[in-house]
Design a protein that fits this description.
By secondary structure, the protein is α+β, with helices and mostly antiparallel strands. It has a domain of about 80 residues: Urease metallochaperone UreE, N-terminal domain (HSP40/DNAj peptide-binding domain), CATH 2.60.260. About 30% of the residues lie in helices and about 35% in strands. It has a 4-stranded mixed sheet. It has a 3-stranded mixed sheet with strand order 1-9-8. A two-stranded antiparallel sheet has the order 2-7. Helix 1 runs antiparallel to helix 2 and helix 2 crosses helix 3. The longest helix is centred in the N-terminal third of the chain and has 35 residues. It is rod-shaped. Bound molecules: zinc ion (2 copies). One zinc ion binds next to loops. The site of one zinc ion has 8 residues, from loops. One of its GO terms (molecular function) is zinc ion binding. Keywords: Chaperone, Metal-binding, Repeat, Zinc, Zinc-finger. Pfam families: DnaJ_C (PF01556), DnaJ_CXXCXGXG (PF00684). InterPro entries: DnaJ, DnaJ_C, DnaJ_domain, HSP40/DnaJ_pept-bd, HSP_DnaJ_Cys-rich_dom, HSP_DnaJ_Cys-rich_dom_sf, J_dom_sf.
Length: about 350
């Protein structure tokens, strides 16, 4: 039997007293039985409070707790079952470490910030380990039943006299301490706190990109690891530049004359206004490539996409009389060419 040593000592005291009495053998049996029942009760009560680990802990198996924190936790949980923290969920679910949940933060950035990356300071609110109770959720105090001794003396009047028996205090399980919920965190072991975090948003992110900040999510419980923080990016679109992966799409308009003769126009890009040469004889809906004026490839910022410029050729709906005259001359010239070829 894994009984606490103190029990045997008191048992022997009783035994010595009893042996001096007549019918000692009979009484010895009664005491012995009573003791068995008592210790079974104690075992049961310990079992209820601490489970298998609690029995070992109360006896001699303190070393079975690989982590001293485990012991601390299970002891306080056991006490919680008695009173203060009794309403906090089932024993089974409370005995294991639980990892903290991930936290999500939606970050809105502008078009250029997404293209070139940006440093942002954000303020997040998440559960942190309570500093008052170090995450245990418990506020330990001296057991009022046993005055911190961990033992209580019970007296029983019998025909043989008054028996006194020292028992492990059932209020505190023999530790001399009881616990109530921590005032700061109301027993959860975690508190909601606001924290400012600096983020380096890499170049090339886009709407729905997610940045993971390891360990900055919600704190775990009972030694569980914290969750991660996921920053979900939302990019405000640019009114003229459209994003297509790492490429940027832009549409320009040139007159039919410029399309025929060729010209140079100013085109907005993420690097500012850039000259773009429209070659002579540019056809309708031609796409011109402005190499490396696009978006840097995420995590490969030396690689960049292109800006693709679609050329819309504008044909006038009205002509001045002078324009009309010139166009007609052009038409005659064109027909003459055609005729002379025949
Ligand atoms: Zn606390
Ligand atoms: Zn006590």
């Amino acid at each position: 039997m894994n009984l606490p040593k103190i029990k045997f000592a008191y048992f022997w005291n009783h035994l010595i007293v009893l042996c001096r009495e007549p019918n000692a053998e009979q009484h010895l049996k009664e005491i012995s039985n009573a003791y068995e029942v008592l210790s079974d009760d104690e075992k049961r009560s310990l079992n209820d409070k601490f489970g298998e680990a609690g029995l070992k802990g109360a006896g001699m198996g303190m070393g079975d707790f690989s982590n001293p924190f485990d012991l601390f936790e299970s002891l306080f949980e056991g006490m919680g079952g008695m009173g203060g923290m009794g309403s906090m969920g089932s024993r089974a679910s409370r005995s294991r470490a639980v990892d903290g949940q991930d936290e999500y933060y939606s970050l809105v950035i502008n078009f250029k910030e997404a293209v070139f990356g940006v440093e942002k300071e954000i303020e997040i609110t998440r559960l942190e380990t309570c500093g008052t109770c170090n995450g245990s959720g418990a506020k330990p105090s001296t057991c009022s039943t046993c005055g911190g001794q961990g033992q209580v003396v019970s007296s029983a009047r019998t025909p043989l006299g008054v028996f006194q028996q020292v028992m492990t205090c059932s209020s505190c399980g023999g530790t001399g301490k009881v616990s109530t919920s921590c005032n700061t965190c109301s027993g959860d072991g975690r508190v909601r706190r606001t924290k400012r975090i600096s983020l380096k948003i890499p170049a090339g992110v886009d709407t729905e990109s997610r940045l993971r900040v390891r360990g900055e999510g919600n704190a775990g419980r009972r030694g569980g690891s914290p969750g991660d923080l996921f920053v979900v990016i939302e990019v405000i679109p640019d009114p003229v530049l459209k994003r297509d992966g790492t490429n940027i799409l832009y549409t320009c308009k040139v007159s039919y004359i410029d399309a025929i003769l060729g010209t140079t126009i100013k085109v907005p890009t993420v690097d500012g206004m850039v000259d773009l040469k429209i070659p002579a004889g540019t056809q309708l809906n031609t796409t011109l490539v402005m190499a490396k004026k696009g978006v840097p490839v995420l995590n490969k910022s030396n690689m960049r996409g292109d800006q693709l410029v679609r050329v819309q050729v504008e044909i006038p709906k009205r002509l001045s009389s002078e324009e009309r005259k010139l166009i007609e001359e052009l038409a005659d010239l064109s027909k003459g060419k055609t005729a002379s070829r025949r």
